[in-house]
Amino acid sequence: MATNLNKLVLATLVVAALLRGSWAQTTHVVGDSLGWTIPPGGAVAYSSWASQNNFTVDDILVFNFSNGSHDVAEVTKAAFEACNATSPISISNSGPTNITLSTAGEHHYICTFTGHCTAGQKLAINVTATTTAPSPPPPTATAPTPSSTATPPPPPSPTGTATPSSPPPSETTTSPPPPNSATSLAGAALPVALLSIAVALLH
């Protein structure tokens, strides 16, 4: 029984890790319904599309095009600006092509068919590193330490009425709000939930 439980726990953790990794990536269809083609109106179509998307390491670009009509080549920034396809970093002739963004920084893509890049079939994107939950900032102010000697209360008044005492001045400090940890909380909750379900099924 313990062996089966160990296997189930291990399988649950593996599935949770795989699911968490798949949530981190986004698939972007280049140009959306336009696809990868000579855009009407020129290169502004792809630059506008890129400005509406956020690209992160491990995201996937999908270039939809017909074989023999287009291709997609990753090129340097200089080659992108000059529409020079002589030394591409990589090239794919079969569509649709999926490209996984494996590094942060600028990435440039063109179609190498004659005249296509100069007619606007080119894409430049900026890829950011995988996001992680930021660590909380250090406290900006420290609370005063209590004194080692206590002040005795004032003696009662001789008339029998209590003397109103003013509350001691208090020093209040407010900390900044905690960083948004909803994403990391959701990612951490999945393995716990799956493990709880597995344990519940065994009992």
From TrEMBL:
Keywords: Glycoprotein, Metal-binding, Signal. Residues 165-180 have a biased composition (Pro residues). GO terms for molecular function: electron transfer activity; metal ion binding. Residues 129-185 are annotated as: Disordered. It comes from the Eukaryota. One of its GO terms (cellular component) is plasma membrane. The keyword Signal applies. Residues 26-129 form the Phytocyanin domain. PROSITE patterns: PHYTOCYANIN (PS51485). InterPro entries: Cupredoxin (IPR008972), Phytocyanin-like (IPR039391), Phytocyanin_dom (IPR003245). The keyword Ribosomal protein does not apply. Residues 1-24 form the signal peptide. This is Stellacyanin like. It comes from Actinidia chinensis var. chinensis (Chinese soft-hair kiwi).
